[in-house]
């Protein structure tokens, strides 16, 4: 250990370059007094540079002002050293100690003041020289300089971006933006905010932007609200519905190549209608708001005990080649998504709502399933053939219910035969669980109207049974021909709660797994079908589309376009996406029901206890609205108990509801529709 008593030195303290006076040693460490601050005890290898001033100050009181003057002078002189020229004259990549550099480039290498200023210049240099672990200096290579320039440019741009964002945040706090004045940079930032809001920490922008904008470690309620406020002020509001769709990975826009293909298909001439279908009664039956009609039916013959009909499925197989942009986009989307506010179609609307839709009065190619159905619920698939039809009328469920009730033409008989199909499935173990659905009128979001729908009506059962018939027979054709395909299966259910006399079977009485997509034919317990596929909605579901492509090729005695490995991959991805979409659709509906409750504070509803939860909480269901929520503070109640409650307060953003029980009988709220 060298004797450096009364020397001056340079060292790093808390990542900051500092200077000090060495008083002596203690336990193999130097006792160093900085210009400011407390005494340091450092080993020799922690010293970056040391020199003996002339004269050497013997006392700290003398050393400190002398050291401070020396350092100030050296800092003033450090800029006089031409490091760029030194770098050019030195050999790139060669390690040089400070003594060598001083000998080469200082006129007076032994001058402590000159050496100190050069040392400071080298230590603060971030471009021309880098420091080795042993303290030597290494001239950077041209490649290293280029990399350094790239990094510095990136850091400069990042700093400019951070400054812009802080300026934008300040601007948003002052008042709203005009969307007509958005710059490209602002638009990109707003898209990043949307991504942060949609996926939180999983966003590729989270690590960069969250600390900059003062967001917490995770995307909590406060962070959500802040991001939504910024987007609102910027003129790009994020509705809860759109947020749920983004979180479900719903693709919002179609690429240009997909739209171009759709436009070309939409403008193609319509095919000629087969004379067979010119005068036969051919209809679609859907909800009144439906535009993407994908199935129709034709009554061919009907009598007391037997009827023949054709179920037509819109045929996309000749238009969507597997190597087309449209097919690849359908693959990425997996299915259409339906919310209360909008439909996000699997295919562009020019196709889903027009070219491929079985609209009344226009010719459309279809795959027609010809069935013979008996009054006892038995049936026979006679054939499946490509056809060209013209639908006479697009009927609503309500219209068909009226025809059935009035006994118009064949409708009552068709309904009876379809009821027989349902009864046959129920005898085989199918579930017929009650479904509650609602129609929402959101034209005025401040005055939401809701009407309960009858989803177990005769027309609904009719369409349901014909779709089941098409799908189960498609599954049978695939299984018998050993075609690669995607089946829909469901494991057997188990009764877990005894059904009381007069009680209707519900999901609470049974334990049942969700349906799965599989490449192996199997039973679908809930429908009592073996096997079962999805083939009736190729406009709306990718699985139906590839099933149709396989089936059409098989009917034409051509090799099928897809193999088992394709089906395995699609079964996995489609099942995942469809679950995400279904959750988003439920969340959107739940949100609007919450908004409805917020508009009806003070209203009284019938509540039923679905189940008690830990910590004296209860999961309740508002029976009139089919609305489930969790609350606390009520007396201990048993599962299944019913009582009246009043809505006190609703927090729409957090979906929280404050309630109180009704001590006296009160009129129960009726839906506003």
Question: How would you sum up this structure, described in words?
Answer:
With about 675 residues, the protein is an alpha+beta fold. It contains 17 helices and 26 strands. The strands form 8 sheets. It has a 6-stranded mixed sheet with strand order 14-13-10-9-8-15. Strands 4-3-2-1-5 form a 5-stranded antiparallel sheet. Strands 24-23-22-25-26 form a 5-stranded antiparallel sheet, with helices on one face. Helix 6 (about 185-200) packs across helix 9 (about 240-245), helix 9 (about 240-245) packs antiparallel against helix 17 (about 565-600) and helix 13 (about 395-405) crosses helix 14. The longest helix has about 35 residues, at about 565-600. The protein is elongated and about 125 Å long. It starts with 7 loop residues before the first strand and ends in a 12-residue tail after the last strand. About 30% of the residues are buried.
């Amino acid at each position: 250990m060298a004797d450096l008593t009364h020397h001056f030195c340079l060292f790093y303290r808390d990542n900051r370059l500092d200077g000090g006076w060495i008083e002596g040693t203690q336990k193999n460490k130097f006792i160093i007094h900085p210009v400011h601050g407390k005494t340091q005890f450092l080993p020799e290898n922690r010293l970056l540079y040391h020199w003996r001033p002339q004269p050497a100050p013997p006392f700290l009181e003398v050393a400190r002002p002398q050291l401070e003057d020396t350092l100030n002078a050296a800092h003033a002189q450090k800029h006089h050293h031409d490091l760029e020229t030194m770098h050019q004259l030195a050999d790139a990549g060669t390690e040089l100690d400070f003594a060598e550099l001083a000998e080469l480039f200082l006129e007076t290498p032994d001058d402590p003041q000159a050496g100190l200023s050069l040392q400071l210049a080298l230590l603060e240099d971030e471009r021309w020289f880098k420091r080795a672990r042993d303290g030597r200096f290494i001239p950077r290579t041209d490649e290293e300089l280029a990399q350094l320039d790239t990094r510095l440019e990136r850091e400069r741009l990042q700093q400019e971006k951070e400054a812009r964002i802080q300026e934008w945040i300040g601007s948003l706090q002052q008042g709203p933006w005009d969307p007509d004045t958005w710059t490209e940079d602002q638009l990109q930032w707003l898209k990043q905010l949307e991504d942060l809001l949609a996926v939180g920490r999983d966003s590729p922008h989270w690590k960069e932007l969250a600390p900059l904008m003062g967001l917490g470690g995770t995307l909590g309620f406060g962070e959500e609200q802040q991001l939504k406020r910024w987007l609102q002020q910027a003129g790009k509001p994020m509705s809860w519905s759109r947020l749920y769709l983004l979180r479900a990975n719903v693709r919002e826009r179609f690429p240009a190549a997909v739209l171009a293909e759709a436009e070309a298909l939409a403008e193609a001439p319509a095919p000629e209608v087969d004379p067979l279908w010119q005068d036969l009664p051919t209809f679609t039956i859907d909800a009144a708001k439906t535009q993407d009609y994908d199935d129709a039916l034709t009554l061919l013959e009907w009598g007391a005990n037997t009827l023949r009909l054709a179920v037509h499925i819109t045929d996309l197989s000749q238009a969507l080649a597997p190597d087309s942009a449209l097919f690849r986009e359908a693959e990425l989307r997996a299915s259409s998504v339906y919310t209360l506010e909008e439909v996000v179609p699997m295919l562009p609307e020019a196709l889903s709502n027009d070219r491929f839709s079985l609209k009344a009065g226009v010719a459309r190619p279809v795959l027609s399933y010809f069935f013979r159905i008996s009054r006892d619920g038995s049936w026979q698939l006679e054939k499946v053939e490509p056809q060209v039809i013209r639908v006479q009328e697009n009927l609503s469920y309500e219209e068909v219910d009226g025809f059935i009730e009035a006994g118009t033409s064949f409708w009552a008989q068709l309904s009876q035969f379809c009821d027989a199909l349902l009864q046959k499935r129920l005898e085989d173990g199918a579930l017929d669980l009650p479904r509650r659905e609602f129609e929402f009128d959101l034209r005025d979001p401040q005055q939401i109207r809701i009407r309960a729908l009858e989803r177990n009506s005769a027309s609904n059962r009719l369409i349901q049974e014909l779709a089941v018939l098409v799908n189960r027979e498609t599954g049978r054709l695939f299984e018998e021909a050993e075609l690669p395909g995607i089946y829909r299966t469901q494991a057997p259910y188990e009764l877990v709660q005894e059904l009381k006399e007069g009680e209707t079977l519900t999901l609470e009485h049974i334990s049942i797994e969700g349906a799965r997509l599989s490449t192996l034919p199997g039973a679908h317990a809930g429908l009592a079908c073996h096997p079962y596929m999805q083939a009736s909605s190729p406009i709306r579901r990718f699985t139906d589309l590839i099933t149709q492509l396989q089936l059409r090729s098989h009917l034409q005695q051509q090799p099928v376009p897809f193999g088992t490995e394709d089906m395995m991959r699609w079964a996995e991805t489609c099942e995942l996406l469809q679950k995400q979409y279904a959750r988003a659709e439920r969340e959107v509906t739940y949100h609007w029901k919450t908004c409805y409750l917020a508009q009806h504070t003070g209203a009284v509803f019938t509540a039923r206890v679905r189940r008690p939860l830990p910590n004296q909480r209860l999961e309740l269901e508002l029976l009139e609205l089919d609305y489930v929520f969790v609350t606390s503070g009520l007396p201990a109640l048993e599962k299944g108990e019913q009582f009246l409650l009043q809505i006190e307060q609703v927090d729409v953003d957090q979906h929280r509801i404050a309630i109180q029980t009704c001590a006296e009988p009160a009129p129960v709220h009726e839906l506003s529709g």
